[in-house]
Amino acid sequence: MKFLADRTTGKLAKKLRALGFDAAYWGGGPGEEAARAALTEGRMFLTRSRRIPAVGKDLQVTFLEANDPREQVREVLQKLHLRPSDELYFSRCLLCNEELHPVTKGEVEGRVPDFIYRNCDSFCLCPRCRRVYWPGTHMDKMKEEVGRVLPGRGWPPARRESAGKGSYGRKEGGKE
Questions:
Q1: What is the pLDDT of residues 125-146, one digit of tens each?
Q2: In this predicted model, what pLDDT tens digit does every residue of 27-42 receive, in sequence order?
Q3: Judging by DSSP bridges, how do beta strands 44-47 and 61-63 pair with one another?
Q4: Half-sphere exposure of residue 46: CA atoms within 13 angstroms, side-chain side
Q5: Does one domain contain both 92 and 150?
Q6: 92 with 139, same domain?
Q7: Domain stops at, among 36, 59, 84
């Protein structure tokens, strides 16, 4: 399922991306434009606003009550009867929403801090913004966040060492 979050649910988009969902963010312009974009792109429109202009009978809208982004995630999953797939966690760029692609260590040489390059063998790249991701302390913090959002959801221990999708760290040039 693909989503479009408006300004009233902006932080929700990033959290849904961390769970592996395709979640676009509409940060500007009137709500009517956001609703039209959601309809055109075949996305579920996520909003807290009750003033949604009529843009077509096929627009799918989920109205959220919660103000806290963690609660909004729970609300979306519950209302739409969704269960995130562990295999898709951390498989999308948090900024661009693009699917991350595994890359070789050699492809990121000079693009990540030296310490990270020496001590990490698993890297992913966003094809749009070119940010490099790797498993590290940032991923550990995000896993804790997932645990707070989805209580009782275990985390596969082997995931941290995985060379495939799901490797997450700081943005390119950032410090671990």
A1: 999 999 999 987 777 777 777 7
A2: 887 888 898 999 999 9
A3: parallel
A4: 33
A5: yes
A6: yes
A7: 84
